[in-house]
Amino acid sequence: MEVxxxxxxxxxxxxxxxxxLIPGTLVKVPFRNGQCWGLIWGEVPxxxxxxxxxxxxxxxxxxxxxxxxELARWICDYYVCQAGAVVRHLLPGDGGTVxxxxxxxxxxxxxxxxxxxxxxxxxxxxxxxxxECVAALQSSISTGSFRPFxxxxxxxxxxxxxxxxxxxxxxxxxKSVLYLVPEIGLTPQTGDRICQILGEHPAMFxxxxxxxxxxxxxxxxRKGERRxxxxxxxxxxxxxxxxxxxxxxxxxDNSYKQDEAPRFHARDAAVWLAHRRSxxxxxxxxxxxxxxxxxxxxxxxxxxxxxxxxxGQPLPEITIVDRTKDPAPGSLTIPAREALQETIARGERAxxxxxxxxxxxxxxxxxxxxVPECPECLGIRMVLxxxxxxxxxxxxxxxxxxxxxxxxxxxxxxxxxxxAIQRLEEEIQRLLPGTIxxxxxxxxxxxxxxxxxxxxxxxxxxxxxxxxxxxxxxxHDFPAVTLVIAADGDVGAGVAxxxxxxxxxxxxxxxxxxCGRDNLPGKVFLQTRNPSSPLLAQVxxxxxxxxxSQELGMRQExxxxxxxxxxxxxxxxxxxVEAERALEKLSRSLQQAGHHQVLGPIPAPIAVxxxxxxxxxxxxxxxxxxxxxxxxxRTWLSEPRPPTLRAHVDIDPVDLL
Length: 657
Hints:
With 657 residues, the protein is an alpha/beta fold.
């Protein structure tokens, strides 16, 4: 039998068993000098070498449903990753945790949460366009067959109402619902709506939960006590059976792609899962990914559209402000500052976007021009976090005390250079004394389980100004927001990644859509040093169709996704020559093997991280060559290499840095 250990990102190991065990069975096996819990991955013919025997199979049933084991196998195969990297997502903890939550062995440590009784289901008041979309989804759900939909609806068009009304049909038919969101911060808002509209408490799945909470949610779904599972990427692995509807909200969001093994994309895996479960899947966004948009235009997905806001409110008026012609000091131009003061004076709310953490992007000596850089990441500037009195590298996490003099020339004229979100927060507090200013970024929410929810509730309940990084753009629905200011509309546009323009359009459009959702009109100020940018003009006119057409045309000419598929291979090592040579050998092998384009190896855009030299190899290919190409890469990954080298393969990468 092949067994995947729950504590190791490794391939399946072969063990023998006197009895036949089916995939998904929990077992205890000897490993090295100890014992480990694992899951049966599959059955293989007896090998020629001596194998150890499985010690124990404590449960008399298949712990992981067949559908979830099939999903794990597909992820392992499609994304060219180790089986052990995938199976650890199937359970909320190790084998001991699982047995305790099932009441076997020692006293259970699973946190028991008292849930209020489900509320009586209610309904949204739908407009004709919403009703048309709901009818299409309900018809598909009733057939019990696979059908993918793309719902493109402008911000505030009522896409959530469409999802939940359709979900009623699935639940009424005795089927379950899987609801994915890209951000942990969206789970309270979405969970409350599910309770209100469906009359059911969803089982929550995301990384912000404690072990006990994860175990409780997993067990409630596995036992059939909860029929709705929702959350971020990890919700994809909820042990739901008989799924009738899968919802992927804000499907364009790159947070659905995991940046460590297994490097799967939850949106694409959800579509595959719907195909295997013969159910309906709906992907939704105001700014769909170009991959999904092309699938809809090519007829692979059925396209549903909500071109107007739910209650007929106009989309916000967007003004582009030329930063170079405004003499105002600080982060805000004169028009933006005056609009903010007027908005708060009227008792309304504002959101400010600045996608740059810290107090300043760097420090610079005014005497010699020296800029402190990370000693472990080549060419990466240390970010000033003044409140913590630290310089921090945002790539490797290295921290240094802020120097009082220039390390190079000894001058005392080492000053902050540029503006980041902490500095903007202080400016707004000085500009609007007595106003509640709430900041939302990873520095205030990381490692603090309830901090994000607390801050979101503060802004939702008490108003004032919300300042945030791109976190504020992710589908939040706040009342009485009438102003959005993008303090630097150019952030991200110049990144060395062909998707930079798409991400900038999505972030600015989504953040703009947070305002004017009530009866009060919304205004948006986009501050920029490039006011003639065609991309900003498309954001200003809410022209997704024009942007998508132009961007798809450019990518077709260059042979980029979604017209071609892409694989990124990275090799990192202490010696640059060693890493480069390893990829050069792979490059020659790939070029001889098939009909695909191999680019590189070249140094990664961020060439050194944590003193490891990083080299990239890009492979552009057609779908027809995927299987052969992945088999070759799987063989290459399994080859022995020096411990000083680390390799990984990223299928369908969304970040080339």
